[in-house]
Design a protein that fits this description.
The protein has 368 residues and is an alpha/beta fold. The protein has twelve helices and 16 strands. It has helices at residues 2-10, 47-55, 80-86, 106-113, 124-130, 132-140, 170-181, 190-196, 228-231, 271-282, 293-301, 358-366; strands spanning 22-26, 33-38, 63-66, 91-94, 117-120, 144-152, 156-158, 185-189, 213-217, 238-242, 258-261, 286-291, 307-313, 322-323, 339-347, 350-357. The strands form three sheets. Strands 11-10-9-8-12-6-13-16-15 form a nine-stranded mixed sheet, with helices on both faces. Strand 9 (213-217), helix 9 (228-231) and strand 10 (238-242) form a beta-alpha-beta unit. Helix 3 runs parallel beside helix 4. The longest helix is centred in the middle third of the chain and has 12 residues, at 170-181. The protein starts with a helix and ends with a helix. The model has no long low-confidence stretch (mean pLDDT 91).
Length: 368
C-alpha cells in the first residue's frame, strides 16, 4: 500500500478532476509485483486499468492494493471494480472508501458479490491526506487550499520600499515550485501581479509541463494586459476572478484569459464563492495560494485554508516591512487561528514548516 501511495503522491496536480490514485498488483505467493498503475494526466485511464494491463493474465488470483475504492460506474472509462472482477483478482486491499455518490461502497459490493476478498482501511489516514482535495470537493464543494508563505523570521514579505527579491534561498524557491507542480491551480491577488509581475509557472527542470492553472483574484480589474500572466495565457490557462465584466474585458479579447464572475462592488469577492467557482468550473481539487497579504488573511479568516507551508529566512526586516498577513481583526489571543505543526525541515538556509489548520482536522473528521 505504501508503494501505491507513493505512486499517487508523485502524480498530484496532474489528475484533476479525478483524484490521484495508485494501484499495485502483487502475486500473493511470491510477493512479486505484477503491475503498477496511477491515475493518468487529466484523470484517465485510472490506476487499476494501467496495473491490470501490465499484469495481464497473471492478475488472476493476485492481490491488488488500491489507495481509493475502485469506481463502480462506467463513465469515459469502464468501471474499475468490474475490470478487477473480470480479471479474476483474488483479493483487493483498499485504503479508503470513495465518498462520491456514484461509487460510495458500490465498488466494494461489486467485488464482494463476485467472491473477491476485500480488506479496507489500510493506511487510511495517509490516503486521506493524499486525496484530501477530491474528498473535500465531493463532500463540501470546496477544494483543498494550501497557503504558501515565504517570509523573514518576523513575518515580512518585503521591505518598506517593496523590495522582496529574494528573501528565501534558491533551494526554498525550488521547493515552492514543486508545490506548484503538486496543485491543480495557483491563486494570487492582483496586488501580487502589480508588484512582482510573476509568471506563476513551474520552473523545475523536467516539470515545466506541470504548471498549474493560474487564477488572479482581481475584483477591480487592475491586472494589466501587458503582464506576463496575460501575455502567456494561451500557453498556460489563466483566469481572473472578478465582479467586473463589462468594458474592462474589451482589452483582454484574444488573450486567452477567461473571467470567473463572483461577488459585487459592494461586497467584494466572496472567498468561499471564489473557491467554489474555481472548483466547479475548472474541476480543480487542489489550490495553492501564494499571496498577497490581503488574500491570505481573508482565506484564513474565513477558515478556508487546510495547510500552511511557511518558508522562513534567517533574517529580520522590521516593523516597517510589509507583513505576510493583513489584519485579521482578532481581539483576544484565545481567538487566534490555531495551527498544528506537521513537519519542519531545513531547506538551504531557510526553515520550512508545514502546518494543518483546524479546518483540515474538521474536514477529515467529517469523512470518517
Amino acid at each position: 500500500m505504501q508503494a501505491a501511495l507513493n505512486l499517487a503522491r508523485r502524480h498530484l496536480g496532474m489528475t484533476a478532476p479525478n483524484p490521484s490514485v495508485g494501484c499495485v498488483i502483487v502475486d500473493p505467493k511470491t510477493n512479486r509485483v505484477l503491475g503498477r498503475g496511477y491515475t493518468a494526466k487529466g484523470g484517465r485511464p485510472h490506476a487499476e486499468t494501467q496495473a491490470l494491463e501490465q499484469a495481464g493474465k497473471a492478475a488472476r488470483g493476485a492481490t491488488a492494493y488500491v489507495t481509493l475504492e475502485p469506481c463502480a460506474h462506467k463513465g469515459q472509462t469502464p468501471s474499475c471494480a468490474k475490470a478487477l472482477r473480470k480479471a479474476r483478482i483474488g483479493r483487493v486491499v483498499i485504503a479508503i472508501q470513495d465518498p462520491h455518490p456514484k461509487t460510495a461502497g458500490k465498488g466494494i459490493q461489486i467485488l464482494r458479490n463476485a467472491g473477491i476478498e476485500v480488506t479496507e482501511g489500510i493506511c487510511e489516514a495517509e490516503a486521506r491526506e493524499v486525496i484530501l482535495g477530491f474528498l473535500s470537493v465531493v463532500t463540501t464543494d470546496l477544494p483543498m487550499v494550501t497557503l504558501k508563505l515565504a517570509t523573514s523570521l518576523d513575518g515580512r514579505i518585503a521591505t518598506h520600499t517593496g523590495d522582496s527579491k529574494w528573501i528565501t534561498s534558491p533551494e526554498a524557491r525550488r521547493a515552492g515550485h514543486l508545490l506548484r507542480a503538486e496543485h491543480d491551480a495557483i491563486l494570487v491577488g492582483s496586488g501580487t501581479i502589480l508588484a512582482d509581475d510573476p509568471m506563476l509557472d513551474c520552473r523545475v527542470p523536467g516539470l515545466e509541463s506541470r504548471s498549474p492553472i493560474r487564477v488572479i483574484a482581481d475584483g477591480r480589474m487592475r491586472t494589466s494586459v501587458t503582464s506576463r500572466v496575460v501575455q502567456t495565457a494561451n500557453e498556460i490557462p489563466t483566469r481572473i476572478v472578478t465582479y467586473q465584466c463589462e468594458d474592462e474585458w474589451d482589452s483582454f479579447e484574444g488573450t486567452g484569459v477567461t473571467a470567473i464572475i463572483t461577488g459585487s462592488e459592494q461586497t467584494g469577492i466572496d472567498a468561499r464563492q471564489c473557491l467554489e467557482q474555481i472548483a466547479d468550473w475548472e474541476g480543480v481539487n487542489r489550490i495553492l495560494v501564494e499571496g498577497g497579504s490581503h488574500l491570505a488573511a481573508s482565506l484564513l479568516k474565513a477558515h478556508l485554508v487546510h495547510y500552511v507551508h511557511w518558508f522562513r529566512a534567517p533574517m529580520v526586516i522590521g516593523g516597517d516591512g510589509l507583513p505576510a498577513l493583513q489584519a485579521l481583526g482578532i481581539d483576544k489571543v484565545e481567538h487566534g487561528i490555531q495551527l498544528e505543526l506537521i513537519r519542519s525541515e531545513k531547506i538551504g538556509d531557510d526553515v520550512a514548516e508545514i502546518y494543518a489548520t483546524k479546518f483540515t482536522a474538521g474536514a477529515l473528521d467529517r469523512l470518517n
